[in-house]
Amino acid sequence: MANNTNTGNFDSFHKQKHKDEMVKQLITFALMIVFTLIAFVVVLTGVDKIFAIPLLLLLAVVQVAFQFYYFMHMKDAGHEMPSLMIYGGIGAAIVTILALTLIIWW
Amino acid sequence: MSIATQNKGFAAVLWDYLTTVDHKKIGKLYLYAGGLFFLLGGLEAMIIRIQLIEPENDFITAGLYNEMITMHGTTMIFLAAMPLLLGLMNAIMPLQIGARDVAFPFLNSLGFWMFLFGGIMLNVSWFTGGAPDAGWTAYSPLSTTSPGHGVDYYIMGLQLSGAGTLMGGINFLVTIVNMRAPGMTYMRMPLFTWTTFVISVLILFAFPALTVGLFLLMFDRMFGAAFFDVALGGNSIIWQHIFWIFGHPEVYILVLPAFGIFSDIFSTFSKKRLFGYTAMVFATVLIAFLGFMVWAHHMFTVGMGPVANSIFAIATMAIAVPTGIKIFNWLLTLWGGQITINSAMLWALGFIPTFTLGGMTGVMVAASVADYQYHDTYFVVAHFHYVIVGGVVFGILAGCHYWWPKIFGRILHEGMGKLTFWTFFIGFHLTFFIQHFLGLMGMPRRYWVFLEDQGLDTGNFISTIGAFFMAFGVIVFLINAIYTAIKGEKAPADPWGGRTLEWAIASPPPYYNFKQLPLVRGLDPLWIEKVEGKGKMTPAEPLGDVHMPNGSFIPFVMSLGFFIASFGFIYHATHDVAYLFLFGGMAIGLGSMLVRSLKDDHGYHITKEELEREAD
């Protein structure tokens, strides 16, 4: 019961956290749009393929990371098992693709 | 609810099972359906063996023979072994971790009905102009050019049942991650739960490859695409890669749960903690990991070149290391133990030499140079029957004898159990041991007939005699199951002196499993309590209301919808009426999904008072 006197502080702490979280979400969202715009601009302006393809792939990887870590909250505590599964799956897929491209069809 | 389950009419029981979301009932449904398909697959095997009993036999035609071998393989892998294991997992795994149900009971039911309709789909093909006949691997271009609709049924049937399996795998993963009882850490989980967990990961990663492959094949066959058509710029080898990227992990999806069953049985009937528990867990994980890196060893003779062949050969041989660790750990669990030999233990003991033989020929076929000699001969047939029958079927039968009391509340008859074991075990080795030599002498697999006086006559005759022994063993098991259901001895909660949580509750368990979730204090939690003189689990929570899910008929309707739509896909090119099936079925399936999404179903509570009223 004694804790009740602190509810005001407790609330303000959570409020601040939610506010920070919201700011992060908005920044991520804005960055996502910017990245998408860059991708479109790169293709529309006809940048050389040798530069454009790696850039698009890099942007895609960053966007996937944003999706996982910010929108799907993988950065927060308690997401160890999903991380393990996702990285395990990505690992298995990469090894498979490497095997197919490097040693089977070369 | 609980009292009303007594003395119901047939229609009420049927409705109960059609709508159930209880993991124990779904486990039973998997066992019934899987058992039925096992008998079908066995019948197909008998027909194959009768055809091969003598040279140039004409018991069945060549075309029908192709259908037999295709359906035997497909049925045994996808419709018998998988669901029987999923049934045991469903029935036992939640009990072993001290959970009241799986994480998504609705999804569990949907998974079962998808599997069942997929299985029915495949077998409908017998009556509609011919079953699939391109082998269970359905290699293109044979599968893309096979006339008739047989392979179409293969595609749609496996797509349906594969979706069901994927749901089951995801469900088990979430259950094990989130619903372990207080104190049940990962490193305290029984080996059967561990292997369930690991194979669920394998299902999650491997089945999408099958789904994609089947879709590509479907587009090629039904919609005129050319993924596998070399003439139009496709690549028919890609099918083999996609199939085996799924297919090799599938082998471990089948055999690892069997390893888990044997681990539990060895430890229970040796009255010892499993030797090298940690090593067993890591060996399981390692086998699963390596299982993804070896798919191309099925394709050594395709012409991938020496570099690829060598790398895949070495990776394959590496799997023998963790498997060897397991074999030695089982032997050392037996070592110095107080061993009880009953029918469950007999299967486990018979498994060790049988599976080791299969593993040894596995290393032989993994040597890519030697594989040019073995490939597509009966040597390979002998090898994979040693691992799949000697590993998986023995495991399922061991698990059935071990957990029958927990699942059905009655103990299987020991005498008949032993008779099943000995006839099946002897019959199995008669059938398949000789096939190693038939293969080495050059008998190719999948051939309809063989010629006289090429040294193959006696071997094939012996092999067929062995198959009859196995059939006899299976029939005795069936009689045993029926006898037990009628006159069998009622099982106590803990008939074997068990060590794990499933033996801490009544046989069969009440529909809410644990009145109070148990407190787990270490590996083999029930054994710890027995050793320390308490004999039963300490509750981890006060008695309170139990939240239960409501039954639902939607999974059945949803699966039925997709089942109907599948016929539409198969016949849309030739019959206009098929579009009715296609759109009608899809409407039923998607409509059920919509209903499920829009209708809130919060389940119900069993009140504390009701729980208190029920006797322990």
Automatic annotation (TrEMBL), chain A:
Keywords on record: Cell membrane, Membrane, Transmembrane, Transmembrane helix
InterPro entries associated with the record: Cyt_c_oxidase_su4_bacillaceae, Cyt_c_oxidase_su4_prok
Sequence intervals crossing the membrane: 26-44, 50-72, 84-105
Membrane topology: Multi-pass membrane protein
Signal peptide span: none
Keyword Phosphoprotein tagged: no
Subcellular location: Cell membrane
UniProt GO cellular component terms: plasma membrane
Top-rank taxon, per record: Bacteria
Cross-referenced NCBIfam families: CoxD_Bacillus
Protein name according to UniProt: Cytochrome c oxidase subunit 4
Organism: Oceanobacillus limi
Automatic annotation (TrEMBL), chain B:
Reaction(s) the record says it catalyses: 4 Fe(II)-[cytochrome c] + O2 + 8 H(+)(in) = 4 Fe(III)-[cytochrome c] + 2 H2O + 4 H(+)(out)
Top-level taxonomic group: Bacteria
Class of this enzyme: translocase
Annotated GO CC locations: plasma membrane
Residue stretches spanning the membrane: 29-48, 68-92, 104-127, 153-179, 191-218, 238-262, 274-295, 307-332, 344-366, 378-398, 419-441, 461-483, 553-571, 577-595
Keywords recorded for this protein, A-Z: Cell membrane, Copper, Electron transport, Heme, Iron, Membrane, Metal-binding, Respiratory chain, Translocase, Transmembrane, Transmembrane helix, Transport
Enzyme Commission number(s) of this protein: 7.1.1.9
GO molecular function, one term: heme binding
Major localization class: membrane
GO biological process: electron transport coupled proton transport; oxidative phosphorylation; respiratory electron transport chain
Membrane topology label: Multi-pass membrane protein
Pathway: Energy metabolism; oxidative phosphorylation
Domain named Cytochrome oxidase subunit I profile: residues: 9-521
Cited InterPro entries: Cyt_c_oxase-like_su1_dom, Cyt_c_oxase-like_su1_sf, Cyt_C_Oxase_1, Cyt_c_Oxase_su1_BS, Cyt_c_oxidase_su1_bac
Localization annotation: Cell membrane
Function, as annotated: Cytochrome c oxidase is the component of the respiratory chain that catalyzes the reduction of oxygen to water. Subunits 1-3 form the functional core of the enzyme complex. CO I is the catalytic subunit of the enzyme. Electrons originating in cytochrome c are transferred via the copper A center of subunit 2 and heme A of subunit 1 to the bimetallic center formed by heme A3 and copper B.
Homology family: Belongs to the heme-copper respiratory oxidase family.
Name of the protein in question: Cytochrome c oxidase subunit 1
